[in-house]
Structures are given as structure tokens and as C-alpha cells.
């Protein structure tokens, strides 16, 4: 990653893909896409080491898929206008995805797009920007009969990922993407591990009785991406140092302890790895650029590492949202509320995106 702000036009293509649509679009499609929560990276230093082939950042992720969904409907228009409605507030991201898809498919069709989101929170760890871009891309691809294969689509949209600038609907700030939101939309599994160029290597269904409890500090102001990426660039050397210091331990523990036990149904080694990665390998401290108080909040949650009611606990992405996966939602809610955090509860999403309606 070139460590400087890069401002692009809405719809600007950084990495090209050409998959010309061979048929006329359907009349309407409605899909439902889940959210992802990023529990840990497999190599944090790769956040700034791009794959030149497709602009993917091969940092890897351990993702939990949450039933916090966006319902996206797309209808082709008789003109070339892109008309956007719905309660999702960042319309520039929706427009960006639509233009990217028009360019990839070689069409000039206009679209009427409606995006309704279960939870309109930005920049707190839910992958809300990427799920919007990936979701709109999925819907338009389906509208034309899926000419783009799913990994091609994930990588194309992740390679052209960008996020909003408050007060400017014509430009976006380029933000590196790992591809987790796309993978969680296209592949089944409540816990999905990706490495390399957004490649899913482990996909595990989690019990339905487990719930995702998500806490966000009440005083967090949800700044725009332009502000946050500038702060992240200043902290980038910390992530690279963590990679140098801990990459061998991360690889060994994942491959020889956490993943084999996870596949056998024992979650504790994965819980311990995620906790140690976040609390003791510098991750939470490195992510404090977004909200400095997360370090203090995290220390107050340290006793939960060995709490048997807590299956997993982690800061999601750079936070400041923390996540607890548990059957005991009241205990998790009490933890977050005691720390002056707003609490949200969601089901695990073991499925991929769903087509709700398709009118031919």
C-alpha cells in the first residue's frame, strides 16, 4: 500500500475485470447479505503489502458471520441513471459498486437500487462498507445470470474498495481490503478463515444457540473513512512490527492447535489464540488510533479469557466494537453495559447470501 491518502472518483476502477454480460438482465432481484466480524489477522503486516495482480491485501482474517443483514433489490432501468433508495446512509458506496459492475459487465444500463440494512453503523468493526459494495455487486451479477465467478467477483470488488468522505458524494478514499465481507457473503460457515488473496481455507458451522453480542462505546463518534485511514497510515509501522514479532507464533498456533481442534468441535484453542492475538500481540494497542480508550476497555475484559460462558471474545477489525460469542447473552450484555457500551445481539449466520426474489 502506498502510505498516503488516495482519493478516487466514485466508480473509478483500479483493478480491471472484463466479463461481458451475454444475456439481458432479469426484471428484478432481491438478495440478503450477512455481515462479518473480523476477529484476527493471520499476518497483520500484510495490511500494507498488496498483491499486484488484483490489489488484494493478503493479511488473512478469522471471520465470524453475523445475521446483521443488508437486503438489496436491483431493477434495470430504461435509461442510464442510477437511482438509490433505502435506509443505508452511504449512497456513494452503492453508486460506486453499481458503476464498477457496469464496467466489468460492459453494460450501460441504469439501475434502481434499494439497500435496507438491519443496523446502519459505520466504522466500528462490522465491515459495513464492504458488505454494501460486495452485496450490490452480487445482486447485479445475479441480475445478469452470474457471468462473474464468485472468487473473481470478490477479488474485483475488494481490489476496487473505497469508502465515503463526508460532504463529498463524488469522491471516495481508497481503503485496502482483505475480502472478508465478500467471502462471508459467498461461502457458508459461521466461522471462516481466509488467507492469501481472500482464499477461504476453513469454513465451520457454529451452533445456532450461540449468539453474537456486539458492544460499541456510547461516546464513539463514528468518523468518516477519510479521517480514519489517515490515522491508520500513521500507525502502520506498528502493524508491520507485530508481523515481524509474532508471525511464526501465529502460523504455528493456527495450523497445529487452533484449527485442528476447531474442526473437532473444541473452540477453546481458537478462543485462546484470538484472545492472545488481540490482547497480547499488540493488536488492540495498534488499533487504538481509531479510539484510544479501547486499550483501557480491553484490560477490563481480560478476565473473560477463561470464562467458560464465553466461547469467543475479540475486538472486531480496528474496533472500537468488541464482540462476545456466547449462549449467555445476558452476561455478555452486562459486561458491555458496565463499560458504557451500546449493545446489539445477533444470530450466527451459517449460510451465504440468499436470493429472496428473482423476477424473470
From TrEMBL:
Enzyme Commission number: 2.7.1.39
Enzyme class: transferase
GHMP kinase N-terminal domain mapped to chain residues: 93-171
MF-aspect GO terms: homoserine kinase activity
Keywords: Kinase, Transferase
Superkingdom, natural source: Bacteria
Entries under PANTHER family matching the protein: BETA-RIBOFURANOSYLPHENOL 5'-PHOSPHATE SYNTHASE, HOMOSERINE/4-DIPHOSPHOCYTIDYL-2-C-METHYL-D-ERYTHRITOL KINASE
Name this polypeptide is given: Homoserine kinase
Natural source organism: Candidatus Nanosyncoccus alces
Amino acid at each position: 500500500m502506498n502510505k498516503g491518502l488516495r482519493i478516487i472518483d466514485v466508480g473509478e476502477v483500479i483493478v480491471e475485470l472484463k466479463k461481458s454480460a451475454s444475456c439481458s438482465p432479469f426484471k428484478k432481484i432481491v438478495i440478503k447479505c450477512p455481515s462479518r466480524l473480523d476477529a484476527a489477522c493471520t499476518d497483520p503486516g500484510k495490511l500494507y503489502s498488496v498483491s499486484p495482480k488484483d490489489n488484494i491485501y493478503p493479511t488473512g482474517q478469522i471471520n465470524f458471520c453475523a445475521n446483521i443483514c443488508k437486503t438489496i433489490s436491483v431493477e434495470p432501468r430504461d435509461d442510464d441513471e442510477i437511482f438509490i433508495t433505502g435506509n443505508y446512509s452511504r449512497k456513494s458506496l452503492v453508486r460506486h459498486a453499481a458503476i464498477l459492475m457496469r464496467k466489468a459487465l460492459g453494460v450501460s444500463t441504469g439501475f434502481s437500487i434499494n439497500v435496507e440494512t438491519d443496523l446502519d453503523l459505520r466504522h466500528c468493526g462490522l465491515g459495513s462498507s464492504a458488505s454494501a459494495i460486495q452485496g450490490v455487486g452480487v445482486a447485479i451479477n445475479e441480475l445478469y445470470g452470474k457471468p462473474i465467478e464468485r472468487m473473481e467477483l470478490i477479488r474485483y470488488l475488494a481490489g476496487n474498495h473505497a469508502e465515503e468522505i463526508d460532504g463529498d458524494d463524488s469522491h471516495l478514499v481508497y481503503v485496502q481490503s482483505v475480502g472478508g465481507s465478500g467471502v462471508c457473503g459467498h461461502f457458508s460457515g459461521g466461522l471462516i478463515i481466509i488467507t492469501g488473496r481472500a482464499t477461504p481455507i476453513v469454513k465451520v458451522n457454529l451452533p445456532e444457540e450461540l449468539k453474537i453480542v456486539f458492544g460499541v462505546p456510547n461516546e464513539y463518534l463514528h468518523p468518516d473513512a477519510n479521517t480514519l485511514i489517515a490515522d491508520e497510515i500513521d500507525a502502520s509501522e506498528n502493524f508491520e512490527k507485530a508481523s515481524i514479532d509474532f508471525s511464526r507464533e501465529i502460523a504455528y498456533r493456527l495450523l497445529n492447535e487452533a484449527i485442528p481442534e476447531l474442526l473437532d468441535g473444541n473452540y477453546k484453542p481458537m478462543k485462546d489464540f484470538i484472545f492472545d492475538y488481540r490482547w497480547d500481540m499488540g493488536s488492540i494497542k495498534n488499533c487504538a488510533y481509531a479510539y484510544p480508550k479501547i486499550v483501557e476497555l480491553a484490560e477490563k475484559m481480560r478476565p473473560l479469557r477463561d470464562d467458560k460462558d464465553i466461547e469467543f471474545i475479540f475486538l472486531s477489525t480496528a474496533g472500537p466494537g468488541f464482540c462476545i460469542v456466547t449462549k449467555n447473552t445476558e452476561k455478555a450484555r452486562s459486561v458491555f453495559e458496565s463499560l458504557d457500551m451500546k449493545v446489539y445481539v445477533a444470530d450466527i449466520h451459517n449460510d451465504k447470501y440468499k436470493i429472496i426474489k428473482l423476477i424473470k
